[in-house]
Fold this sequence. Notes:
Layout: H1 2-7, E1 47-55, E2 62-69, E3 75-81, H2 86-99, E4 109-112, H3 116-119, H4 121-129, E5 133-136, H5 148-160, H6 168-184, H7 197-203
Parallel strand pairs: 1-4, 4-5
Antiparallel strand pairs: 1-2, 2-3
Helix pairs in contact: 2-4
Amino acid sequence: MLHIMQKLGLAGRGAARKRRIQKKVEPGDPRLNLAERAFSAGGRDRLRAGGIAHMPAREGRLYLAAAIDAFSRKVVGWSMSGRIAEKVAIDAIGQAVGREGPPDDGGLVFHDDQGAQHASRSFQRCLDSHGIAQSASRPGTPPGNAVAEPFFKTLKRELAEERGYGTRDEAEQDIFKHIEPCCNMVRIHSALGYMSPVEYERQYA
């Protein structure tokens, strides 16, 4: 049957899939890899990493965008929405700027996961307006965002897999409670000498 369909130029429904092709990060692209996989920094507000992940709920997905300081692994900005659009990424940057502020020397880099929201002109204009340089890894380099990916993975394991949410509001409230008291103030990291992000920042204040 298959060879007959091929001769007739036919294909079964769902057999042909369109592959999503990421835009390559090439010279001249504002999203060059400025981090170069060196996901650490000599101090606060030098390198931040971020991405977008979803939290499942029976009502529908809740999308979370976050910005994490590579120096202390502190979640400095986040935003949540029922729609995945550049606004959720922009709002996360806005909150990070409001909470921490970019350095006056323009030396802050934001490294993202090459998602369409981070590649949008609106998001790039947002970074430009705050004097933040944008960075992204090339396609096919999974360890490229080694600061943000563990955060999202742990969050989904501890919340989504252990608790079932009926509404987005339930998930949003749980995520908020998890980020500020737990991720920033309590959770220890081996990369920080088994200190929490807040403790680590206090040591180097």
